[in-house]
């Protein structure tokens, strides 16, 4: 059995889609906090089990009989370490044979503010004795594609990344990579630094958006503080605004750049081009 935590999230659903191309749905466990949100997965034959990080008994039941687990990092920034530790402890107690964890690109040296929780989770996995692989995911292109409606409304792309290059890939690319690792038998100890290629700047992103819309949409570079303030004004929760502004500032220093080699090797193709991702975003 294969289990996916956070299976009703954006990445989790795509991993299940990728897995079901080669694995029978009844061999896949969707481990989710709210099973009612996974009714569509259950209708496809996927096994749905409750898995609440704050209720350890649900984790033990969710991982029963599971051979391989994909631990998708929690969305609750600031609480991830305890939540991930609970999942790791439950996996070890349940006799899970292998865990793959979605970390962050170049986690040991990353300048991203969100990297510390990933580093500590990687350390917890190392201390657990569980066979595991690290999927150090780069930037999701969707993180910036989400700003397309605002860019169209305001006539500009805003950010704080300067000329920093972003080796972004589509979320579906990372999902395929995770499925590939789960379905191989030689991944214990593997470390994959996953990123898209070629990398691009936010000015490149703005230029591609301009090309596809026939409008002139420039990139407006702001300070980290001003970008965070703009995101707050746009209605984003403060932790999210601070995270995105911090990530842009780190990108200006090269934190989001990287090679696409590992991702290409895992999925057997180039990552999704920026132009394709922008076109998809414009379709809504």
UniProtKB/TrEMBL annotation:
One of this protein's Pfam families, by short name? NAD_binding_10
- Gene3D superfamilies named among the record's database cross-references: NAD(P)-binding Rossmann-like Domain, UDP-galactose 4-epimerase, domain 1
Entry EC no(s): 1.6.5.2
Q: What superkingdom does the record give? A: Bacteria
Using the record's annotation, list all stretches that form the NAD(P)-binding domain.
6-184
Asked if the record carries the keyword Nucleus, the reply is no
Oxidoreductase as a keyword of this entry, yes or no, is yes
* Keyword annotations from UniProtKB, A to Z: Oxidoreductase
SUPFAM superfamilies (UniProt xref): NAD(P)-binding Rossmann-fold domains
- Gene Ontology terms, MF aspect: NAD(P)H dehydrogenase (quinone) activity
From the Swiss-Prot or TrEMBL record, give the protein name.
NAD(P)-dependent oxidoreductase
């Amino acid at each position: 059995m294969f289990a996916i935590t956070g299976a009703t999230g954006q990445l989790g659903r795509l991993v299940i889609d990728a897995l079901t191309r080669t694995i029978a749905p009844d061999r896949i466990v969707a481990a989710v906090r709210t099973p009612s949100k996974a009714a569509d997965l259950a209708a496809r034959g996927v096994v749905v089990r409750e898995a609440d990080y704050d209720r350890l008994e649900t984790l033990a039941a969710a991982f029963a009989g599971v051979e391989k687990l994909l631990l998708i990092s929690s969305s609750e920034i600031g609480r991830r370490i305890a939540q991930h530790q609970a999942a790791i402890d439950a996996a070890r107690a349940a006799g899970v044979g292998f865990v793959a964890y979605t970390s962050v690109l170049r986690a040991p040296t990353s300048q991203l503010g969100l990297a510390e929780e990933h580093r500590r989770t990687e350390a917890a996995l190392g201390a657990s004795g569980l066979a595991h692989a690290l999927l150090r995911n780069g930037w999701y292109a969707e993180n910036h594609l989400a700003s397309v409606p605002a860019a169209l409304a305001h006539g500009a792309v805003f950010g704080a990344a300067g000329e920093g290059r972003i080796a972004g890939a589509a979320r579906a690319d990372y999902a395929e990579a995770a499925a590939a690792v789960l379905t191989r038998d030689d991944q214990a100890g593997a470390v994959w630094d996953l990123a898209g290629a070629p990398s691009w700047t936010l000015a490149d992103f703005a230029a591609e958006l301009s090309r596809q819309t026939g409008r002139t949409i420039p990139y407006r570079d702001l300070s980290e503080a001003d970008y965070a303030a703009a995101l707050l004004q746009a209605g984003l929760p403060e932790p999210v605004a601070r995270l995105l502004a911090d990530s842009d500032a780190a990108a200006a220093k090269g934190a989001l750049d990287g090679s696409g080699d590992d991702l290409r090797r895992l999925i057997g193709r180039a990552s999704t081009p920026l132009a394709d991702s922008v076109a998809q975003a414009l379709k809504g």
